[in-house]
Amino acid sequence: MLRKIHRRFGPPPLLRRPATYATFVHIILEQQVSVESAKATFDRLTDACRNDPSPRAVSDLGDDRLRELGFSRQKARYALALADACLVGEFEIAALSRLDDDTVRSQIVAQLGLGNWSADVFLMMALQRPDILPLGDLALVKGIKEIDQTDYASSQQIVDRAESWRPLRSIATRMVWQWYVHQRGRDIF
């Protein structure tokens, strides 16, 4: 399956993001919406923060301004809670790169509004960890089902299916994403 995708599309895009608070906000904005919609809101935030959506800058904007920029009430709450955790030193993003995947995941999911999908995206894109399989990602799950023409009934079946991709499941995931968006006539990479 992956060989065919590689032949057709070439290597998957790296999709690298900095390991910063801004990346977490971008991930929060991507939860349950299109990548394009999240990017538009993130771009407005970046402009409002003079190209530096830091914890202090976002905190200074406050809830009302974030809502004006396109944040939902819930996502504004998450971004502001994360800013507060960073500002008081409860969540140290710079330290995450020195930790193993499981410890990074547990620290991320301890933050309001960040779950396993958010942790997986951060591990893959910001920390460039090679063996992440984001089971909560709809494009990955749908993509595998469509590519294999199989209706996997459980997450465990997808984990089993992806076992042959170890220790490079992050690369395989990006290849599935690459195929998935192409099938839909989109080009987000």
Automatic annotation (TrEMBL):
Keywords for this protein: DNA damage, DNA repair, Glycosidase, Hydrolase
Catalytic activity: Hydrolysis of alkylated DNA, releasing 3-methyladenine, 3-methylguanine, 7-methylguanine and 7-methyladenine
InterPro entries: Alkylbase_DNA_Glycosylase/TA (IPR051912), DNA_glycosylase (IPR011257), HhH-GPD_domain (IPR003265)
Keyword DNA damage on entry: yes
GO molecular function (one): alkylated DNA binding
Signal peptide: none
Stretches assigned to the HhH-GPD domain: 29-181
EC number(s) per entry: 3.2.2.21
Gene Ontology biological process: base-excision repair, AP site formation; DNA alkylation repair
Family annotation (Pfam families): HhH-GPD
One GO term describing the cellular component: protein-DNA complex
Presence of keyword Glycosyltransferase: no
Family annotation (PANTHER family): DNA-3-METHYLADENINE GLYCOSYLASE
UniProt protein name: DNA-3-methyladenine glycosylase II
Organism: Stieleria maiorica
The encoding gene: alkA_2
